[in-house]
Fold this sequence. Notes:
Blueprint: E1 12-16, H1 21-30, E2 40-47, H2 53-67, E3 71-76, H3 86-104, E4 108-110, H4 115-127, E5 141-143, E6 148-150, H5 158-167, H6 184-198, H7 206-229, E7 235-237, H8 238-242, H9 246-258, H10 266-277, E8 282-287, E9 290-295, E10 298-303, E11 311-314, E12 318-322, E13 325-329, E14 338-341, E15 348-351, E16 355-358, H11 359-365, H12 370-373, E17 378-380, E18 386-389, E19 393-394, E20 405-409
Parallel strand pairs: 1-2, 1-4, 2-3, 4-6
Antiparallel strand pairs: 5-6, 7-10, 8-9, 9-10, 11-14, 12-13, 13-20, 14-17, 15-16, 17-18, 18-19
Helix pairs in contact: 1-5, 4-6, 4-7, 7-9, 9-10
Amino acid sequence: MELFTPWDPEEKVALAISGGVDSMVLYQLLNTVYKETYDTLLLLHVNHGQRTASFDEAEYIVDMAQRNGQLCETVTLDILSAEFSQEKARVARYDFFGEMMVRHGASVLLTAHHLDDQYETILHALLTGRHLPGRMGIPVQRHMVDYTIVRPLIDASRTEIVDYATAHDVVYFEDETNVRTDYTRNYIRHRLMPQIRESRHLHEQQLLRVQQDMTDVDALLKDRADAFLARYNTHIDRRVFNQERRIVRLYILTTWLAAHGEVPRRRHIESILDAIESDIPNASFETGAVSIVLSYDLVLKVQSQNEKMEMLEIYGDGTYHFNGYKITAHMADSYYPLIVRTKSEGDRMAVPGTGRKKLSRIFIDNKVPADERCRMPVVVDKNRQIIALGEIYNIMDSKEKKRQLIIEKEFTNEPEK
């Protein structure tokens, strides 16, 4: 059986070994035919702790590694049966793998995903609405921060793997939970895939073409989103945004948020798209470290309360956001640019009917909390004169000036009715 082996003979590789037929066959191949393709082989085994037999299986794998002169690191997950889920187990497994890869200086992590896993993953993505955004299916390689994940068996079918195990007397263990169909992936494996294979009009190989097509579509949509966002920074023209096709808008929002490390679920993005497309004038949607804020004709990306902006430049009319404040400017061109910043030592401003006054004194007189003083917007005109301080003083907010500069605290956690 041929393996995909992109690593170098000098590298230390690790194998995620479960004890199932796929990982045990991969181990047998690495220990025989492909023994010269790497320098050192490290085994990593995760016992989910949900079956009595899993403890005996873990002991067998450790003993097997010792017999072959290899190191095997194991862990038993501390997840109660009532709280166990496939997603929790997957996250815990990869946390363990990542820790071990760094500890042992391994550069490549091998997993035993095969062609049937690929088919099931693609079908799962299609039927659960997870086909976009992002690449479909299992990548043959995935580059992590400290190591690379490689799937050497990704082109081999499960039938080929089982046949190899039989021909070479490979010992492996069957997980009885794999036949249960209350897990979505197991349902696809045992209920859908057999029906597809029995039909002479359906061909499972076409799923690979769907994967490639969707990968190309994903790349095109990412390019389109990048080109759109190149014209904007902290805010987007709502009307122009809505002129794009909905799938493009989905990618624009996803890309925008990804720049802050946020990857919301698609249904959350869809709810934001619905609001942007509606006639709701103001709304705010929390997405982890940032919020997407609707403000009339604008869609804005606002940092969370735990982050602080130090400066914002305003070059024209519009609505802007700064440390939890909404700043609306409708001024003559001669006033721009404005600088919005936080307080500086020695700042003074002209207070109507009082004269020039230190900001520190204004904060004290108005009983502004210390943490708020560091966040409150100080607006400076192009002549470096302070013309506004949060909601406290604003020389542009007068009857004569016709409210050309409005500063107000944001309270937009719920859409307006």
